[in-house]
Design goal:
By secondary structure, this protein is of the alpha+beta class. It has ten helices and nine strands. A nine-stranded mixed beta sheet has the order 2-5-4-3-1-6-9-8-7, sandwiched between helices. Zinc ion binds next to loops.
Length: 289
Amino acid sequence: MRVEDTKFAQGFFRMCGDSFRQGWNERNGGNLSYRMKAEEAALVRDRLGRYEDSAQDGAWQEIGTAVPELAGEYFMVTGSGKYFRNVEPDPASNVCIIEVDETGTKFRILWGLVSGGRPTSELPTHLLNLAVLKKRDADMRVVYHCHPTNVIALTYVLPLDSEIFTREIFEMATECPIVFPEGIGVLPWMLCGGREIGEATSEQMKKQDFVVWAHHGAFACGHDFDETFGLMHTVEKAAEVLIKVMSITDRKRQTIEPEMFRKLNGPFHVSINERFLYEKTPGARIGER
Ligand code: 2HA
Ligand code: ZN
């Protein structure tokens, strides 16, 4: 079966297009990875490792970190320097399928990037995250990075503190704590594209599904494309509301209070982490405890 005709690949390509149309992927910004199921790899097996019309040769290359948990697995990932905008019209030039070797330190390109190129510069972060997620829940397969405008804007005005950042976002939409009851992780500015930021991000992903990279963007993860895209969309929407509120005032007249959040737990079958439901000082400004 052609890779382009599979349901997982179509979901992957659609997510890239949707993300671009949201305005979260200027130029080559953002990257997406998906840990394929064994049956999906089997479906396209006869299309993998054919290099006749491709600039690729299938040579093993260094990942730049070690992910032994992912040895022998197959992934669809966006290409380094490639534009999300171009994925839907020409997936084979902008996306690839890679295999991780038995030591978890090398990969090879089995399909795609036919005009040349390599997987995303954030491959270490993606694979380290996917390894953590696999341990958390074997059905979590998607890691997604983009540059959502309002989330990034908030990293200039809110303290870079997971509890405060999460609480301010939680208060902007009742659905937020239901969708991500474990809140948002926040990393300070770090050099992107390497192992260090990958390790820091995956440390957060041990518990949280969403991590903000200050002055850069965000990472979301999930079981499938809908859930992962939906999480990014939910956080970015709440961030937009917060930006609007902050454009009007530095203090809210009324908001969702901790005891109101707690009422959501039972009916929505969640357990909102109490760390985010601290009592605020009366009259506190937005972003203050
Ligand atoms: O260029 O967004 O973080 C892709 C990126 C790097
Ligand atoms: Zn980025």
